[in-house]
Fold this sequence. Notes:
The complex is a heterotetramer of chains A (493), B (682), C (265) and D (315).
Chain A lengths: L7 E3 L3 E4 L5 E2 L1 H13 L3 E10 L2 E10 L4 E7 L5 E3 L9 H11 L2 E3 L29 E5 L11 E7 L2 E8 L7 H5 L7 H6 L6 H16 L5 H29 L3 H22 L19 H27 L1 H7 L7 H7 L3 H5 L7 H4 L20 H23 L18 E9 L2 E9 L5 E7 L1 H12 L8 H8 L3 H5 L1
Parallel strand pairs in A: 3-6, 7-8
Antiparallel strand pairs in A: 1-6, 2-12, 4-5, 5-6, 9-10, 10-11, 12-13, 13-14
Helix pairs in contact in A: 5-6, 6-7, 6-13, 6-15, 7-8, 8-13, 13-15
Chain C lengths: L1 H12 L22 E3 L10 H5 L5 E2 L7 E3 L8 H5 L5 E3 L14 E2 L15 H7 L3 E7 L5 H7 L13 E3 L8 E5 L7 H10 L5 E5 H6 L21 E3 L6 H11 L11
Chain D lengths: L4 H29 L9 H11 L2 E4 L4 H19 L16 H20 L4 H32 L4 H10 L7 H17 L27 H25 L12 H27 L9 H22 L1
Helix pairs in contact in D: 1-8, 1-9, 2-8, 3-4, 3-8, 4-5, 5-6, 5-7, 5-10, 7-8, 7-10, 8-9
Amino acid sequence: MKRDTPFTLLTNGSALSWSDVPEWPLTEFLGNVGAELDRGERLSGLFGVPEGDALRIVAVLAFDAGNTLAVGRSQPFSGSFPALTATHAQAHLFEREIWEQHGVVPENHPWLKPVRKDHGAGPAVGDFFRVDGSEIHEVAVGPVHAGIIEPGHFRFQCAGEEVLHLEIALGFQHRGIEEAVTGGPHRATVYQMETVAGDTTIAHTTAYANALEALAGTEAPLRAQWLRAIALELERLANHTGDLGALAGDVAFLPTASACGKIRGDFLNLTALLCGNRFGRGLVRPGGCPLDCDAERLSQLRKRLETALAEVQQAAAWLWDAASVRTRFEHTGHLHAKQAAEIGLVGPAARACGLVRDVRFDHPTGWHRFAQVPVSVWPDGDVFARARVRWLEIQRSGDFLREQLDAVPEGETMAPLPALAPNSLAVALVEGWRGEVCHVALTGVDGTLRRYKITDPSFHNWTGLALALRNQAISDFPLCNKSFNLSYCGFDL
Amino acid sequence: MMESSAILLTFTLWVYVAGMAGALLFQRAERLANAVGFGLAALGGACGVVFSVSSLAAGQGMTITPVTLWSGPIPGVRFVVEADALSCFFVLVVSLVGLAISVFSLGYVRTYYGRKNVGVMACVFNALLLVTTLVFIAGNLWMFLIAWELMALLAYGMVSFEHEDRETRQAGVLFFIMSHLDAACVLLGFLVLAQAAGGFSFASFRGIGASLSPQQRDVAFVLFVFGFGIKAGIVPLHIWLPVAHPVAPSNISALMSGVLIKTGIYGLVRVCFEFLGPPPMWWGASLLAVGTVSAVLGVLYALMEHDLKRLLAYHSIENIGIILMGLGASLMFLHTGHAVLASLALIAGLYHTINHATFKALLFLGAGAVLHATHTRNMEEMGGLAKRMRWTALFFLVGAVAISALPPLNGFVSEWLTYQSLLHGFGTTTSLVRLMFPLGGAMLALTGALAAACFVKAFGITFLAQPRSDHARDAHEASLPMLIGQGVLTAACVFLGLFPTVFLKLLDPITLQLTGHQLSQQLTMANGLVLSGVAAQGGTVSTLGIMLMFGCLLPVPLALWAVFARKARTRIAPTWDCGQRALTPHMEYTATGFSKPLRMIFKALFRPRREVQREYDFSPYFATTLRFESHMEEVFLTRIYRPVNYGLLRLSRRLRALQAGSLQAYLIYIFVTLVALLLFAL
Amino acid sequence: MFVQDTLLNRLKRGCETMAYPKGAAPALPDRHGGALRVDAARCDAKCGACVTVCPTEAIARPAGKPVALDLGRCIFCAECVTVCPTKAITRTGDHRMAVRRREDLVLGDASKEQVRLAQALDEKLRRLFGRSLRLRQVSAAGCNACEADTNVLGTIGWDLGRFGIQFVASPRHADGLLITGPVSKNMELALKKTYAAVPDPKIVIAVGACAIAGGPFIGHPQHHNGTSALLPVDLYIPGCPPHPLTILDGLLRLLGRLDEPTGIR
Amino acid sequence: MNFDPLTFLGQTLALLLLAPLLSGCIKNWKAKLQNRRGPRPWQVYFDIAKFLRKDMVISEHASWIFSLAPYVVFLTALLAGLMVPMISAPAPLRLFGGVLAVIGLLALGRFFLALSGLDPASAFGGMGSSREMTISAIAEPAMMLAIFTVAITAGSTDLSQIAQSTQSATWKLLNPAHVLAFAAMFVVLLAETGRIPVDNPATHLELTMIHEAMLLEYSGRYLAFMEWGAAIKQLVLMTLLVNVFFPVGLAGPQASAAALGISLVAYLVKLLALSAVVVIVETTNAKMRLFRVPDLLSTAFVLAALAMLSTFLFG
Lengths: 493, 682, 265, 315
């Protein structure tokens, strides 16, 4: 159904010419974006495109109810722009990023701090938010964390054991991917796309492939799209199983923790069965999937999938059956649905607050147009809800894989990719296991990538973790952190 | 032999008088007044110690002859002094602590040069020592009450010594009111006894309880418990103690906490064991119960404090509670006829009295030295003092280990004796009241553990980690006399801890006098190395043995060091901070943060209230300011004292209506009273 | 109740730890391909097909000498294997790739067709860490794949604990650092402070192409192209990400816990 | 004064060698219950030997307390161990202290451990110290009441005396007082040695640690002494539980070699059985929320109070 909106609508994984994107003066553009957000739409991307020394801001909105995307851009401007964050919290990180990357100042932005680097001095410097009170003390859990996890800085304001405020400073993993892609796609670009977030390789590379295929005006062969969907669900299974094990490990519940550790390895080996790499490196390329799988390999995949799913069923049963675990999970790190919607959460974190948001359901593309995966939702918004959503997604991904492996499409898996259309914009959304991965590609006059914007789901969800910790015990922080299990390198790019 | 100790005693008193006079005389020359005043006080303390130790060591040979100090113009009013074993013990307490504090004060009062009148302080200090000694050795009612009243007045003078700020003046007034409340109760109690005994001398009071009717004895007992209880600071009569002690100058707080609250204990022991005759069961049980409650509440309130001196003041309440547990158990054993157990419990109580006097005075002197260096009592602004005030930190640590009843120091020995008496108490009676003993033991264990937690906080936040303020950063070590003062008390703690059997001999004459048994032989084994309980296989302990074993086992780690780690080097590096830029003092643990879990566990008692003000300009997710305040309710103040206070005020307001101001009304009042008296007289 | 259930399940399944290194090593996935091998004879000097196709410029063509493939920079995408006309670069399927010296990873010269595998630590360090090694893992801009495969060594299948190797929380308890990621400039201070916090004697292990030479992000100004720019490295484990078997083989080889002869080639 | 150096040296060596082995066994069994091979039981020896040889890094903010604490923790645990009967009823240092001295020595060790946690000015150390002192403050009355129950029936605080008097009347082992006291002491054991329901010894997460948080700043031989002291403390508490509350098979004062042999075997069997129970509790329970631990310990207090009441009811 068409809605009267000034923005140009386009479906997920399609492209349009740069001139078709509606253009308004800055304040009117921001007014339009604000109006759409007030109507309950979601902001998938907001980034700057430099034009000479001026800057245009491009907005990508997701009309979930209308199952369509919408894009719009502002006329070139410079200096500063009125911040949307004052009235719409979900734009706050995007505007900080625009300020950091392009130097235009969002006026009266309530939390204007660097996103990834502190202009040469490295992240987590400068004044953190301080709670005043004589008995308040700061707990600073620095970049190097206990255990094997990526670096990030968490600054707690505590009154004894209770956390009053948590501020998260990231940027330690910044490798400068977006700067490297401009003028691409170069030889290393696809490998960099695979390592934007190492545990979400398939989702990011599929989004990259969809964007380039949209720009080239083609589509991957059906069997390739099928193979990509299979790999995406395998990746989801592996990571969710790993998370259930890690959650059990954080509350020292050894049966599930040890079992899930092993089962995650089995799921990763299933992906390795398809492409030789446990994380799916080399499985997806623009134009299709270079490595095809014969029937014997697929039946072996089917058989090993059954055993792994049975084992994870057993391990999860222990988790839900143990009362000592349940008392730890429930009412910990609680987020209301209203809060989740206002700060724009995506993925399992949003679905655990009762929001029905899933790119495979709202904006189906590739094989998901033909085979549906039901959306897993749980109402409470606490650690228990996030764990249950993960468990539901494991079951539904398992069913999807069984169903798809019984009906394998025929045909080629790789097609040569024609040249990219000049001066056109492509948007590709994929439901990674953490949530909506959004790649936006803009080609210049000569058909090379003039601007490439990657938005990892963690970019939306880190604020959710900071909120979930308020008025919680600090000893529950690792549990809440693992229930979100967000990517540091996906945020830092 | 008796003659020489009497001379020594009078000489001690005259030295104090000389100290007072000297201090007043040289008021102008502060340095001289300080030296003369506190020097003579130290001399008096030393003489007092020699006197009491020699007379206690004399043991059986001590004959008690009352000596008339001064018989004034009013007939029948004579000031009689009589130093029996119990008095000598408490004179030892006041003299030992007085000696140490005087030496400490030589260095400490230098801060008052030019600001306050040091001469007056020295004079009042000497007077306090004199009067307290007189309280302990008072022979008759006149001497006791006059000395008691003078002690209260002088202490009030010292509490409001720094009368500049309002808080001190209010504390002084509260102290004054409570002192006179207890003086009134004590006076009424003694009048009940005097009315039966016909005279005012303590000799005539001995065993007077037998001739009193049970109701009169109970009334006297309750009056004495109230009177001496307020002075000792038992819960619920304790509210003045954590208010008054912290505001006094540190050396005076040490004297008050170390000695003055012991006068209450002396009074209770003198009255309950000597004057009131065989005690009924509920006396001992009530003292044990009040002692347990005081111990637990004292330490719980101490945990919540982040003002160093208030924390120590609350701990005085806790230790008084432990002493009362010993005395209460002793009274219960007297009732059930177990005299040996009664003397063991009494020894436990008395031993803890002198222990508390030494380590509490030591901790207050330590706090004084810290306050002297950092100009603040708030622990949240201290930190890192161990490296700047090395000796004070060591002495404070010894005091902390002692007060937390950890082996091998004296706190552990006296609590061990208390546990022994509580343990054997279970078998002494078959009535349900015997369950109080194990429960008392469990609460004593809770008190010990909470005290340990409190002193980890007090020592850790004050002396360790990074300094939290500029004052703390440039703190400097205390002066030599201050260190010597603390050193004397530290030595006393170590001696009382390692050689209990030696000290127990001094307590023999007291238990002989009060409960008719000498236990030092029975409690000593392995020629003085081991301290044992009264029962045959009842369990033994040897703090000296533990220290020897520490020395004996030390070669094990040293050998491992020599064998494995000879070539290992040590490197100093910044604290591991997860690789971030730098650890700031603001990231250190705070005192309130440290005790927060316990505040949450005992929230029924503390009723913590917390207010969080969150201000934001646009959206609640981005707060501009966040303020957090939490307060605890002073339960006793709000639940008991304030209602009583308001009730009195309302009543007095209503009575003011009587003062109508018209002459006729007054005449009518006179007439009505006359008629009433006549009717009554028929 | 689940208690009996878990215990019964435990007895049924028995010990799920693999027999390696006593027994045979688990097979690599068939399409993984393992280490690369450069056959100098087959490579003719004029052809440069592989040099242009390698995404991380791991292959260089020194004048007059056979092609030089730096396995440290290689991310095992196998583009060069498919494009080489004379099949000079082949996949050996061998999981053993860990080396002690950076130059042992450069293949191509006559005597250096394959990786020169790591020798064990010297006698003193081996006596110290032989049976008890505690590592502090630092992710300096790693993409979470190398971290995941290092983490999986702790699960019941691989069970690193049985060799006395353990990952610890505080560098004070550690004997060395295990670094992943190309060491971003933003993580430089943290890595240096962590290294300084570890008591001597200490070792440094670089896991993954990023930690060795910058991996797919080689040359970016935002990072230091690997660990050797900042810290002395004792063990290099190539791969993107290296298979857990490769990492375990490297660790055991470093501690001299592998009894089979190392320098066979 | 019957102090013979032979049992003194014997028990010291036994304590030093058995403690790491016992904690190694517990770690190994926990691994076995997770279907993995896990570290060998004598792995703890290797770890301690390595730490002894390594250099040390000490925080710049640390004072002399930081260097004194490892020796105090190590020696107090060792000394407490020498006062508890292991093989023969009279413990070597029986005269120097009964059960009150054992609790006092362990408390002294904990006092200095907590101070060393606060010393290096890191938030984790402070957090660990605060939690350790809170939990021990709540556990102490429960432990004391359980010990009072047993001490009152034996009429003494001397551990050997208690063990022998409980042993003499065998039916006494089964009366409710002892069973309840044993249960209360078991819960206190889990709290004092930092086992799963209260604290997770094998965790990496600084914010959830209690005991480990205080050791984060230690390295080299100090860390070896601290770990060894903690292992010895665990062995002491288990021996207290096994030999005093359940003294089956404990040899009398002048026992023959055969009786000593039986006593040694009985002691080891009981110790391993108790470790097995601890392992099963650890592998089937999640770690409790920090503010639920006092509830667990107050149930231990109620158990001990019931034990006390039952001595009163059943005489």
